[in-house]
Amino acid sequence: MTSPKPMPDDWQRALIIAAHPDDIEYGVAAAVSAWTAAGKEVHYLLATRGEAGMAGVPPEEAGPLREEEERRSAAVVGVSEVEFLDQRDGVLVQGPELRRDLAAAIRRHRPELVVTGYFGATWTPPGVSPGYVNSADHRALGQCVLDAVADASNEWIFRDLEEPRWSGVQYIAVQDPGAPMHEIDVSDHVEKAVASLSEHRRYLELLSDVPVEDQARQIVDMATATEDGRRRVGFRLFWG
Question: Which domain CATH number covers 187?
């Protein structure tokens, strides 16, 4: 088995795109902490406000709450710019409407690196069985992110967009919890990642009676563990 290569470093601005508040904090935030500590500029783009994700909490209450939790969470790892697209949580659709919104956002943020979460149909964390069915929103968003990078540089596909074309995306990185081809060492950023996820306090309190910080540590440990004891976040990398 080929060892993963280090993530490339020849970029300055990244856009992290996720479906819901807290998605980034399930591993990728550790990489974000490493990047911002190295002087990189990182922005977040959330397709929804996660308003359908809190049992017993109406969407009109959950949406603003989860947005605020995400902004606090982002600040912990050095991210000050967090944009929400206002797509409806739970029913993201892979297609031109979502691609258009994503392409416009890519033009606004002008990244060299675009990062999104794993969007395969199913996934099995290391040492866990059985596995999980991935969220429909994650599956729809991921494919649209890949397409929107090309859309952002094309002047003819979405001709009504006012934002100037952006063809500066060098890399697209898709989080890969299984067999990544590239990785970033986050050994020095685990505590920041745990603190970042812990900002989703109300959300995590509804998921489990386990104390929030303990939940966050378990999740980050699972998302960053390696066989040799190092901590890493793995990605599949594509040309932009």
Answer: 3.40.50.10320
Q: Does a cis peptide bond (omega within 30 degrees of 0) precede residue 59?
A: no
pLDDT attached to residue 126 = 67
Nearest to 193 by CA among 226, 158, 210, 218: 218
The Cα–Cα gap between 21 and 70 comes to: 5
pTM: 0.97
Q: Which helix (H) or strand (E) holds 113?
A: strand 113-116
Q: Provide the residue range defining the domain that includes 119.
A: 5-239
| DSSP E strands, 124-231 | 132-133, 171-175, 182-185
41-46 β-sheet, strand order: 5-6, 182-185, 232-239, 171-175, 113-116, 13-18, 41-46, 82-84
Dist CA 8 CA 171 (whole Å):
9
pLDDT of residue 156: 98
Domain total for the chain?
Answer: 1
CA–CA dist 4, 53 (Å, integer): 34
CB–CB of 163/107 below 8 Å?
A: yes
Burial label for 1, CB within 10 Å (0-12, 13-18, 19+), is: exposed
pLDDT (tens digit, 9 = 90+) per residue, 117-160?
999 999 887 677 898 999 999 999 999 999 999 999 999 999 99
Confidence band, pLDDT 50/70/90 cuts, at residue 177:
confident
